[in-house]
UniProtKB/TrEMBL annotation, chains A, B:
<dbReference type="InterPro" id="IPR041694">
    <property type="entry name" value="ADH_N_2"/>
</dbReference>
<dbReference type="InterPro" id="IPR011032">
    <property type="entry name" value="GroES-like_sf"/>
</dbReference>
<feature type="domain" description="Enoyl reductase (ER)">
    <location>
        <begin position="17"/>
        <end position="328"/>
    </location>
</feature>
<dbReference type="Pfam" id="PF16884">
    <property type="entry name" value="ADH_N_2"/>
</dbReference>
<dbReference type="Pfam" id="PF00107">
    <property type="entry name" value="ADH_zinc_N"/>
</dbReference>
<dbReference type="InterPro" id="IPR045010">
    <property type="entry name" value="MDR_fam"/>
</dbReference>
<protein>
    <submittedName>
        <fullName>Zinc-binding dehydrogenase family protein</fullName>
    </submittedName>
</protein>
<dbReference type="InterPro" id="IPR020843">
    <property type="entry name" value="ER"/>
</dbReference>
<dbReference type="InterPro" id="IPR036291">
    <property type="entry name" value="NAD(P)-bd_dom_sf"/>
</dbReference>
<dbReference type="GO" id="GO:0016628">
    <property type="term" value="F:oxidoreductase activity, acting on the CH-CH group of donors, NAD or NADP as acceptor"/>
</dbReference>
<dbReference type="InterPro" id="IPR013149">
    <property type="entry name" value="ADH-like_C"/>
</dbReference>
<keyword id="KW-0560">Oxidoreductase</keyword>
Length: 331, 331
């Protein structure tokens, strides 16, 4: 093997993402220099934040550059090393990109132990999505036993963990998901107390019925109408962990019409990006890893096969077609 | 004197407040019982929160009851006491109501020293409005020297203190007010670096020009379009002290259209009501009192004459016709 494939950003989407925004390329495997490692990527993680990076507008990170490897987390194995911290055969996770082969200087590359936890989980429940959930629950929402927690995108890689962590704290947990099948999974498998199918057309009535004691904390992945409907149902001193705003990623208008409730219910809302809070990762990953290894935290994956399938899988993710963590299996 | 006048809520406003929503009544001065004091009210404080209490809807406090004395802060003098903590002649502030004479059991009644601070200031800059500013600046915005702070309703009882406290911290302070006269006062008297007249019709361009380094903290009294215009100009990790939403007090639609910036700029927003944070009052009032007594914190008052003038003065306050703290002088 002397070549590998990667996917670059060919053009920026105008609104919705299309397959033509990506381009599959074949490259020579490079020679590594001192301090570098060469990694065979096994699992590419697809996540909603990538949509934002495809835009050219100012955001929390630089836009994805055109004609460069698409940004993305991955989990793989070291196949060559000139870095004393990593040996051939080590399993690692990091920002490897949409590529079969990645070169790393070791920065932000994490060695993982797959004895009790499968490799793919390290880009999911014991990786960035899991840490996103952990940070929102522990550092922003901090829900007490008996409080009601609302989680949008509840069957997703982040939402599913949020709900399970809140259940472990003794909360009443209500999810929002798209479709009866996802809602059934959220309640029956993940153990949420209720799940509302926002596609059923009764969002307001269903949400009110599922939160008889009001809402004390919201983990928001979607924004737009779902969030707006929930705001008037919040209790005094509710907390909002604002993690995603998928409803507006394609440039749609997504106003908060019920903004006055932010004041009248004395809400604390915090937008966050978990990679800006790395100081919490050792503690969080340790806790998440123990929960997964002991079977107290479960997760589901949707796995696309081969790098060429990544664009369609990503487009499906943005439309909610995945079920749990969306991965691309590369080997 | 055996009788006094008071103003009760006669009816709830449908949208805008009208004089007919109030009724002036004459009552007998009651006999006080053990533990009570009788207070001659000198200054009635008029504040925007009262508009909210006039509605019947759920809010942070119970609605103002019909046919009962309108709620309101006041500063006056004890004229009879059966409470060992208060003597005849003591100056006091508390929630006395829209009335010439008030009975108190001493709860939340505060004795004040008028040696270096005028009595009226204790319902303004060294009272609830001043504490509102102090709490937002110190406990929510916590701006550092060199940061840019935006203050709406900048010439008002709260906004004027916010800006001066932020200037004392070494910030660049930009106010928003209605009209050239108020803006001139905000810059020339209160010492803000700039003030934008939102009535001039160039809000977006003027605000962008006045905040060349972006906005690090917002003290929001108004909401609606002003807040919405500022959101995209915030820097990463901006803080919003959400204190008022006057734009929506009459039931107007006041959506936040730029909500996605709460996430993309990782904003922390907190709605608050200062009377729910009484543990900070001793420290805050002490600091504010020293600043006023030493001339480092200035304030302006608009004083209506006599209780019967209160309804029109209040209606004017909601329309921004006051200039600085709105009071009604009763004696």
């Amino acid at each position: 093997m002397t070549t590998f494939q990667r996917i670059v950003l060919a053009s920026r989407p105008q609104a919705e993402v299309h397959p033509e925004n990506f381009r599959l390329e074949t490259q020579e495997i490079p020679a590594i220099t001192d301090g570098q490692v060469l990694i065979r990527n096994h699992y590419l993680s697809l996540d909603p934040y990538m949509r934002w990076r495809m835009n050219e507008t100012k955001s929390y990170a630089a836009p994805q550059a055109l004609d460069e490897t698409m940004i993305g987390g991955g989990a793989g194995q070291v196949i060559e090393s000139k870095n004393p911290k990593f040996a051939v055969g080590d399993f690692v996770t990091g920002t490897l990109g949409w590529t079969e082969i990645a070169v790393s200087d070791g920065t932000m590359l994490r060695k993982v132990d797959t004895t009790h936890i499968p490799l793919s989980a390290f880009v999911g429940v014991v990786g960035m999505p899991g840490m996103t959930a952990w940070f929102g629950v522990n550092q922003i929402m901090a829900p007490k036993a008996g409080e009601t927690v609302l989680v949008s995108a509840a069957s997703g890689a982040v939402g599913g963990v949020v709900g399970q962590l809140a259940k472990l704290r003794g909360c009443r947990v209500v999810g929002i998901a798209g479709g009866a099948e996802k809602c059934a999974y959220v309640v029956e498998q993940l153990g949420f107390d209720a799940c509302i199918d926002y596609k059923a057309g009764n969002l307001q009535a269903d949400l009110a019925a599922a939160t008889p004691n009001g809402i004390d904390a919201i983990f928001e992945n979607v924004g737009g109408q779902v969030f707006d409907t929930a705001l008037p149902m919040t209790n005094a001193f509710a907390r909002v962990a604002l993690c995603g705003w998928i409803a507006g990623y394609n440039g749609e208008e997504t106003p908060i019409r019920n903004a006055v409730f932010l004041l009248s219910n004395r809400i604390t809302l915090r937008g966050f990006v978990v990679v800006e809070n790395m100081e919490f990762w050792p503690q969080g990953l340790s806790e998440l890893g123990l929960l997964v290894a002991s079977g107290k935290l479960i997760f589901r994956e949707t796995i696309a096969d081969g790098l060429a399938a990544a664009p369609q899988a990503f487009i499906g993710l943005l439309k909610g077609k995945n079920f749990g963590k969306q991965l691309v299996k590369l080997i």
